[in-house]
Design brief:
191 residues, alpha/beta, Rossmann fold, 5 strands, 60% helix, 13% strand
Length: 191
């Protein structure tokens, strides 16, 4: 099963991805991890990505597509994966569609974890306090949510129009959200 997780920062995508990996055995492909690994390995794409990141800029769609293409061509991801952090805009979504079509696996399940903005702010503030992080202030979180709304939220409409989107309520415990996700996946696999 090929799954794309969408949701605002703090919606619980990472937690749910870990739980899905354990349940389904599919690899979790996180763009942050891909970028760090490529930079550390010193690959050509990694060097380009590191240069952009070091300047404090977003990595281009072309670099991200290159990293995703490399990762999805590995044996463990050919038939199943859990993609977290990509795509982040419509251009990336279209590129992913084309890549999967070329690989002969065009179908994905897209899960959007819906969560109230104020709950996200509260969650991230609590996490920052517990972990002693100063980079997750309310102002920074609200800015990340604005960027998400402008750039990534349109993906919800894109995937809904394709008939591959399922919305999952992101409130409650991680286990409650996971059970909702598994219910959606069960229904989708039957149809």
């Amino acid at each position: 099963m090929r799954i794309v997780l969408l949701g605002a920062p703090g919606s619980g995508k990472g937690t749910q991805a870990e739980m899905l990996v354990e349940k389904l055995g599919a690899p979790h492909i996180s763009t942050g991890e891909l970028l760090r690994n490529a930079a550390k390995a010193g690959t050509e794409l990694g060097k380009k990505a590191k240069s952009v990141i070091d300047r404090g800029e977003l990595v281009s769609d072309d670099i991200m597509l290159g990293l995703i293409t490399e990762r999805l061509s590995k044996d463990d991801a050919k038939n199943s994966f859990i993609l977290d952090g990509y795509p982040r805009n419509i251009n990336q979504a279209k590129s992913l569609d084309e890549l999967l079509e070329r690989q002969g696996h065009p179908n994905v399940e897209v899960l959007h974890i819906d969560i109230d903005t104020e709950l996200v702010v509260q969650r991230i503030a609590n996490r920052a306090a517990q972990e002693g992080r100063s980079d997750d202030t309310e102002e920074i979180v609200r800015n990340r949510l604005r960027i998400y709304a402008a750039e990534t939220a349109p993906l919800v409409e894109y995937y809904a129009a394709k008939g591959v989107l399922s919305r999952v309520l992101g409130q409650g415990t991680a286990e409650e959200v996971f059970q909702r996700i598994m219910g959606v996946l069960s229904i989708r696999s039957e149809s």
